[in-house]
Amino acid sequence: MKTSQGEIKRGHSALSLSTGEIGDLLRKHELRVSILGLGRIGLPTAAVFAEAGARVTGIDVDARVVNQTNAGESRLTDEPGLAPVIKRNVKEGRLSATLKPETVLPDSDFIIICVPTPVDQTKSPDYTAIKAVAHTVGKSLGRGSIVIVESTVGPGVVENTVGPILESESGMKVGVDFGLASCPERSDPGTIMKNMHSVPRIMGCSDAHAGDLVATLYREGLGVEVVKVSSPKTANAVKLTENLFRDVNIALANEFALLYEKFGIDTVEVINACATKYNFVPHYPGAGVGGPCLPSNSYYLIMEGLKVGNIPYLIRLAREVNDRMPDHMVELTSEALNEIGKTVSGARIAVLGIAYKPEVKDIQLTPIEHIIDRLREMHAIVEVYDPMFVGDKVMGLVVHKSVEDAVRGANCVIIGTAHSEFKKIDLSSLAKMTADRAAIVDGRGVFEPADAKRAGFAFRGVGRVASPD
Ligand code: SAJ
């Protein structure tokens, strides 16, 4: 329904819609979607729903993000395909952003929460942001709206924390006056726009009809399969299970690596050979596990386990194994330098790659930060290069503009991130740039040990066979 001013006033309550009307309203640009949190997940989510025809308003507390979005720009420069979608939809009036949730939430059909849920220093989940957002939404919640939590939280947090806050602030009842669902984000930073249209979504809602409407929103809006599960807590359990499966298996690969190094066995060779078996899921050893997801997701489950007196063992031990890998990298660096008659103290060490994973401009909980800190404490002279951070000042260091600038005269080169650029490095050329006899410590399986040794480097790699033969 359009008012005389052309502004759409919600002439319907989302809960009163039939699933068949969702597609119609999308095509008529009359479905109103609000996204809380315009970060790595929220901004692409806002963009793709606007592209699907919804009238989307992004809500954030950061004026820079709001202004950038309204200018049709995106600070997520490492998400291919995102910028043009934002630009087009802002220009066509389907995407905007605001600092004032109260101006849009009352008229929103769907309200999608995409705020961060980090863990604090004590490894406890910090739900401050999502609780604050729940209060904000509750205060402006319109009857019939449907709230969707995409943020990763422990099983039960949506039902037992978010829901009661929404009810107390709004005076309304979940499942009666408004809907509440979990549809955890499932995107891989760096390929989010592709994932948004390809990765099936897991959705759990306490109310069947609201759940059907949410499933239809994602199916029609994103064109993805939606797997409906029996409750929000089940959806959150799925998200954590898939991420903790990954963290535990990476830890297992790291445990093999710590062992096979001592046996003179190449762990990467072993894992690649295992991967020829139909039911083996390959994971690889490395310098450590970083990013906004894996290092923290385990603690959401542990926190909920604590509440019921069941503290998981394996996922906690896996975190300990993975968290030990940066220190292992420092040990490997010391060993490699000793092989060429040097010590860490006084050595020039070039760290190639600080991002937590390849091709993303993101150092959240990157294990490389701990490695750099330790090496500097040991009085090494550390230089860094990362193609995603050229010229930036991070971890107290200015990122060089090239591999050559960082490695010139270095006694040791550390590979911290498997950026595709590093896989193209010619090792004999590298040997001419570094100091006379230098070392390589490969934290991400970028080089073959034999190639590094052939180029004259003292070589160590996580899980790899050390030089000399
Ligand atoms: N890592 C290893 N060995 C491996 C794989 C990864 O050491 O075999 C390290 C990476 O270097 C990185 C960390 O683990 O430091 C995390 O890697 P990741 O590939 O899991 O990257 P994330 O954290 O961006 O994971 C996200 C997750 N997506 C969501 O939570 C929605 C994860 O579930 C996905 O599996 C992953 O993207 C993906 O690859 O799609």
Overview in brief:
The chain has 469 residues and is an alpha/beta fold.
What would your notes on this structure say?
It contains 17 helices and 15 strands. It has 469 residues and is α/β, with parallel strands linked by helices. The chain has 2 domains: 14-230, NAD(P)-binding Rossmann-like Domain (Rossmann fold), CATH 3.40.50.720; 267-461, 3-Layer(aba) Sandwich (Rossmann fold). The longest helix has 32 residues, at 232-263. The structure holds ligand SAJ. Ligand SAJ is lined by residues 185-189, 242-243, 246, 250, 283-284, 286, 289-291, 293-294, 356-357.
Please supply descriptive tags for the structure shown above.
469 residues, alpha/beta, Rossmann fold, 2 domains, eight-stranded mixed beta sheet, five-stranded parallel beta sheet, disordered N terminus, binds ligand SAJ
In the CATH hierarchy, what is the superfamily of the largest domain? NAD(P)-binding Rossmann-like Domain
Structural class assignment: alpha/beta
Which percent bin holds the helix content?
Answer: 40-55%
What's the story with the biggest beta sheet?
8 strands, mixed
Task: Output the number of helix runs.
Answer: 17
Number of domains: 2
Cα-atom radius of gyration: 25 Å
The CATH level-2 architecture of the largest domain is identified as: 3-Layer(aba) Sandwich
What are the bound molecules?
Answer: ligand SAJ
- The total strand number stands at 15
Kindly report the spatial arrangement of strands forming the biggest sheet: 3-2-1-4-5-6-7-8
Low-pLDDT stretches are 1-8
Mean pLDDT: 95
End-to-end distance, in Å?
A: 76 Å
CATH topology of the largest domain: Rossmann fold
Global outline: elongated
Share of β-strand residues: 5-15%
Regarding CATH, which class of the largest domain? Answer: Alpha Beta
